[in-house]
Amino acid sequence: MASDAELIYEGKAKKLYKGQQAGTLVQYFKDDATAFNAQKKDTITGKGILNNLISSHLFPAVGEMGIPHHFIDRLSPREQLVKSVEIIPLEIIIRNTAAGSICARLGMEEGSRLDHTLVEFCLKDDALGDPVIATEHIRLMGLASDDELDQIVDYSLRINDFLSGLFFAIGIRLVDFKLEFGRYQQDGDDIVILADELSPDNCRLWDISTDEKMDKDRFRRDLGGLIEAYSEIARRLGLEIPDITAS
Ligand code: TMP
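^ thats the input. predicted complex w/ thymidine-5'-phosphate below
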């Protein structure tokens, strides 16, 4: 990243710099990996490059089916230009198959198919451990309006249908994933648009024939082979993989 660019925010896996044009940011993908609210940490060389590559492919695809989003362009192996938004402090979790925290929380068996797609909300607050919250809490805390929430759920389900099909076509089951949305000013109106990233860091992706995990669970569960798995996702998506050792 150009050394003179102003750092706006540093998260666990990404940094945001001020873009050259007003209303834009440069989203920089780090190699840092964290899990369990950053109690587990490591650096995995090349992860950021692969996530930038995959996310830069999936955002325009989602945009093609009418979902507004923050992505503008992939600038370099680790950077993308995005629209600056006011992040709505919610993590939207969409689940097709039981895995991860819902199994621990509700005693579901990992791998069991859910009768219908489940949309859960978590409060985006690391200090509180991103707790699951109900729509009543969201209303009470004024985190999003009812119209914004309706829009978020509608977009999330449409993204799920689209991505489930896209991954199915390349032999991958979209088990669950996390989305974040932001408010963006367009023609004087505040609209809700998709932000953050779409990558194996925030999706669970299992090979359809073997159930092999091809996502960040390889790190969370010490399975190894994360770079190989993310590279395989990129390869199946038809993407040309850049030199992942680039800094
Ligand atoms: P969970 O089963 O741990 O709640 O995760 C559900 C999905 O959300 C999974 O695909 C991983 C993703 N996720 C994130 O992207 N960031 C997070 O901080 C957490 C907890 C989950």
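The pocket of thymidine-5'-phosphate is lined by residues 93, 100-102, 130, 176-178, 202-204 (CB under 6 Å).
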